[in-house]
């Protein structure tokens, strides 16, 4: 499950990670929070990372969210 890849990348991170989009915020501790956001390809999200290695974690998550494999195109 592609959403699971995002959660897996965030798991074990000792700091705080949150994602905001479509009027919802989740802390990426479980896949259901991410799925519940109902994101589609092309939706904008804001990722916040606070902790050690935050730049690297932000880069990893940005790459994962940017892939087309996770969220279906609108209208399908």
**Share of helical residues:** 25-40%
Number of strands: 3
Q: Strand order of the main beta sheet, please? A: 2-1-3
Low-confidence stretches: none
N-to-C order of helices and strands: HEEHEH
Which oligomeric state applies? single chain
By DSSP (H or I, 4+ residues per run), the number of helices equals 3
Our measurement of the CA-to-CA distance between the termini, rounded to an integer number of angstroms, reads: 18 Å
Quote the beta fraction.
Answer: 15-25%
Report the structural category. Answer: alpha+beta
What is the approximate shape?
Answer: globular
What Rg, in angstroms, do the CA atoms define? 12 Å
Average pLDDT confidence is 87
Describe the structure.
By secondary structure, the chain is α+β, with helices and mostly antiparallel strands. The model has no long low-confidence stretch (mean pLDDT 87). It is globular. It is built from 3 helices and 3 strands, in the order αββαβα. Helix 1 packs antiparallel against helix 3. A 3-stranded antiparallel β-sheet has the order 2-1-3, covered by helices on one side. 37% of the residues lie in helices and 18% in strands.
